[in-house]
Amino acid sequence: MRWWWCVAVVGACLSLSPCVSIVTGGSRGIGKGIALELGKAGATVYVVGRSSRGRQSVERSLPAGEDLTVEATAEAVTAAGGVGVAVALDATDDRALAQLAERVREEAGRLDVVACSAYSTPPSLEGPGFRDAFWRQGAAMWDACHGVGLRSAYVLCCEAAPLMVETAASGGRPIVAIVSSFGGQSYTFNVAYGVGKAATDRLVKDMAIQLAPVGIDAVSLYPGIVRTEGNLELDRRGEWADASGGLDLESGETPGFTGRALVKLLEQPPEIRRARSGTVQVVAELARELDFEDDGGRRPPSIRSLRFLVPNFVLTDAKLRTFPPSIAPFLKAARDRLVPDVLLPWSVFSGGPPPPPSSSSS
């Protein structure tokens, strides 16, 4: 048997079946996408979220009638080939997070992945209010972004770290993955949002320094524009354009795209993962580097790519409509086919927000 054939067979049979994971924000959105992709790879996933069948969320930005609960995600994880465990709790409850870590210790005896995707927006500031001035948003936006998106991630990592250290000592290579965003690099949506995301990136960077000697990695994951249930509902109600500033949701990423990025990272050799620890990892850029795709064989561009920036901020569809009908189709074809997938350096991208789409559509 040729050696390369053996490698191919082993690679095809790779599974995350020994992997035990905690995923917060798992009832919907990116958290659900991460949980399902871990499940497809054979992992045991503790799906954490506020929304359970006994206490469903009533946020206006979510579609009515869908089963967006931790139980539904856990069942889908199991159906996909993993083991889903539903855990209904509020991520702002420190005691509940401590009890979760202890439960995982008692039931599984190891912990390989902590994926933090829990996030909250005050109901009064959903939709267009998410982009409002900070002095009108006040402390409500600050507390939501930082209390759930930042503080709960820190507290969970504090509680989970001892078990992850033990897992690493027994031969594993655990990882902490916190869902952040390009808002950590450049102005996005509002002040509190950007401060929270920048703090998330720093949390990962500094945790990685202390986790490295004990064999644990930590990364910030940057999705692009994601077709979450909430965003699709905003689009259905005609509020997406105002809430996002006119970004193209139709060509956005699926929630599972971020999950595939995490699974791919888990499959990398320890030395490769170690080199990425403490850094920002853009999901779309990982897809190109590690060779994976979104649904339908698509590879959405990174938000800092010209292929994203030009159609969303420079030559927008609204701008094209200002050209004569005889010219507009040719310009659109040239835009869609000829704009290269070239990344702006972080130093350029972080220099300030791109011009609002509305300014180029007048």
From TrEMBL:
<dbReference type="InterPro" id="IPR020904">
    <property type="entry name" value="Sc_DH/Rdtase_CS"/>
</dbReference>
<dbReference type="InterPro" id="IPR002347">
    <property type="entry name" value="SDR_fam"/>
</dbReference>
<protein>
    <submittedName>
        <fullName>Uncharacterized protein</fullName>
    </submittedName>
</protein>
<keyword id="KW-0732">Signal</keyword>
<dbReference type="InterPro" id="IPR036291">
    <property type="entry name" value="NAD(P)-bd_dom_sf"/>
</dbReference>
<feature type="signal peptide">
    <location>
        <begin position="1"/>
        <end position="21"/>
    </location>
</feature>
<dbReference type="Pfam" id="PF00106">
    <property type="entry name" value="adh_short"/>
</dbReference>
